[in-house]
Specification:
Blueprint lengths: L2 H9 L7 E4 L2 E4 L5 H21 L3 E5 L2 E2 L12 E5 L8 E2 L4 E5 L15 H11 L5 E5 L5 E8 L2 E8 L3 E4 L4 E4 H4 L14
Parallel strand pairs: 4-6, 7-8
Antiparallel strand pairs: 1-2, 3-5, 5-7, 8-9, 9-10, 11-12
Length: 194
């Protein structure tokens, strides 16, 4: 199935269903784990808090519809930063400035006719998106974040652990990697002192 035909197919599906196009094959996504949802929610909140002070022309959003990829691939990122100006009935945007994935078991699936894992194909598509300034690949079973940031000379990649800070100055964000995992089994919520 082509990317254009896939979008027509998606329009006929209920809003609660999530689909990605993988090597021309529509794949319905299973509901993410609670930890996955919690990490995505934490990232969205941290980014929106930073953008409120740094750049109000952009917003962070979970599972936005973004025209990414070409041909037989249409991934749906878990969190993205997009323009804050959009129409009430708009589903898809052309630009995203940050693209983030929380790695799920299905992301380790091999893409047909390749040796690549689906998460690696998605990352390559995200890095190829002209407007994108940062890509985050966040593990949900351990505190680890792969961060790619666009520099004048190309992409700069680094892997961050639990003791590191996530710094995205272009979006006004600086937080501990552990903050992404707050409220998950890896970083349980603490009782507030009264």
């Amino acid at each position: 199935m082509s990317g254009a035909r896939f979008r027509v197919f998606q329009q006929g599906r209920p809003d609660h269903e999530r689909w990605e196009l993988v090597a021309g094959v529509p794949m319905m996504l299973t509901p993410p784990t609670i930890a996955h949802k919690r990490i995505a929610g934490n990232l969205e909140r941290l980014l929106n808090d930073a953008l409120a002070d740094h750049d109000q022309s952009r917003i962070a959003m979970q599972r936005p519809g973004i025209e990414l990829g070409s041909g037989e691939f249409r991934p749906e990122p878990d969190v993205a930063i997009i323009d804050a100006d959009y129409e009430p009935d708009q589903r898809f945007v052309e630009r995203a400035y940050l693209l983030a994935e929380i790695v799920s078991a299905t992301d380790d699936t091999r893409v047909p006719d390749t040796d690549a894992r689906w998460i690696d194909v998605k990352r390559a598509i995200y890095l190829d998106h002209a407007a994108c300034e940062a890509v985050l690949i966040i593990e949900q079973d351990r505190m680890e974040v792969r961060l790619d940031t666009r520099a004048q000379t190309g992409w700069r990649s680094q892997t961050l652990g639990a003791a590191d800070d996530l710094k995205l100055s272009v979006f006004g964000l600086q937080c501990a990697v552990a903050e992404l995992y707050e409220g998950t089994p890896l970083q349980p919520r603490r009782k507030r002192r009264t």
